[in-house]
């Protein structure tokens, strides 16, 4: 088995273990139990559970970048809405147990620099993706001329992060967030009140 295959196997086992045990109670043995590898073999690749989870967050980041890179859109408006949908669909498609485990990891970020750095990469990437499409849309006349791409991008990311958190903590559907963001785009970002479906 190649190093790449071994890493993929460990990441998949980590995912399953997080779904079963959450973050707080997770052990290296739990991850080994979800994999053909022994606990000793896991420690050969990663010094600690913290190191393995940092690698797992890197793995999730790479998969997220791949998903957003696959977006095909005809114009900046379609691309903006598709990007929102990718984020919301990811939240909706993940098992609640896994989303809960990620929320637990996020809660540790103020105390764990490795977690904070990696979660920050997600936010930075998403903000930059929104900034790029908003800037392009402003330049070609799709969006209003006075739109502030950076400020608007950070607002969108904050709303999307909040929607994911509320789905896990209080069971709110992300559909209302999707509808409200589409309404926000129609009323505040579009240069012309075009036909944007609800």
Automatic annotation (TrEMBL):
InterPro entries xrefs: BetI_C, Homeodomain-like_sf, HTH_TetR, Tet_transcr_reg_TetR-rel_C_sf
Organism: Haloarcula salinisoli
GO molecular function (one): DNA binding
DNA-binding region: 27-46
Domain annotation HTH tetR-type: ranges: 4-64
Keywords assigned by UniProt, alphabetized: DNA-binding, Repressor, Transcription, Transcription regulation
Any one Pfam family match given in the protein's UniProt record, by short name: TetR_C_6
The name this protein goes by in its record: TetR/AcrR family transcriptional regulator
